[in-house]
Design brief:
By secondary structure, this protein is an alpha+beta fold. It has seven helices and ten strands. The strands form two sheets. Strands 1, 2, 3, 4, 5, 6 and 7 form a seven-stranded antiparallel sheet that branches. Strands 8-10-9 form a three-stranded antiparallel sheet. The N and C termini lie far apart (40 Å).
Length: 228
């Protein structure tokens, strides 16, 4: 699968204006720094690869992106799922620590890290926004590590469904762009355990899994109790 590697100049972009509702400092910085939109990225295409030079910061405008690492034993560790409005590529070092791949068709905006750093040097609001985003990313990583360390399969799956629904706007019917294998690699479970757990939650009347990708949260209150 072709990779949209950023060791060279990006492919031709078209200008993108921020949505009227996007009032965050980082959203506005994308406009000031002449953020541009790639042509639609096809499912399975890489936006960047682990070890690539981190030259750009990206914002997901449409679709979803999966981030993962390949472990020494060949297994895959899915670190995050990015939805529309999320930023990625804000690495602490000079190289990307994960591979980012499109789940379905994706549109993204991209800004050079050097341009963003230059704006932050003179814009305290943007510098604060970048710091807060880094803190939130660290907190999400800590929370995920705690889930993997202390929770069983049912708790992990319930937490994942609730978290993903909340990130989409606290909806009760969610279309999952990721496969069950993607979920398993994120939750530290086998695909069979994920499938069995979803079936158990459905049998208990907590969810309705209309298909492998379409889930309705019926008893959010009980799912919250399981996650706690």
């Amino acid at each position: 699968m072709p990779a949209l590697r950023n060791s060279a100049e990006p492919q031709p972009f078209e200008r993108v204006a921020p949505a009227a509702a996007d009032r965050c400092e980082l959203c506005e910085a994308f406009a000031v720094a002449s953020a541009s939109v790639r042509a639609p990225i096809a499912a399975g295409d890489e936006i960047f690869r682990e070890g690539d030079r981190a030259s750009f910061v990206y914002r997901v405008l449409k679709g979803a992106v999966i981030s993962y690492r390949l472990l020494n034993d060949g297994r895959r560790q899915v670190t995050e799922f990015h939805v529309a409005g999320d930023f990625l590529g804000l690495e602490a070092g000079l190289e990307h620590r994960t591979t980012a791949e499109a789940l379905g068709e994706v549109r993204i905006a991209a800004v050079r890290r050097a341009d963003l750093a230059g704006l932050a040097a003179t814009n305290s609001g943007l510098a604060k926004a970048l710091w807060e985003m880094s803190v939130r990313a660290f907190q999400r990583s800590e929370d995920h590590a705690m889930i993997l360390a202390r929770q069983g399969a049912t708790e992990r799956v319930a937490a994942f469904l609730l978290d993903y629904a909340d990130r989409l706007g606290a909806i009760d019917i969610i279309d999952l762009p990721m496969t069950r294998q993607d979920m398993a690699d994120h939750l530290g479970l086998t695909i069979h355990t994920v499938s069995r757990t979803l079936s158990q939650l459905q049998a208990q009347g907590l969810i309705e899994a209309r298909s492998s990708r379409h889930v309705r949260l019926i008893r959010r209150d009980l799912l919250e109790r399981i996650r706690a």
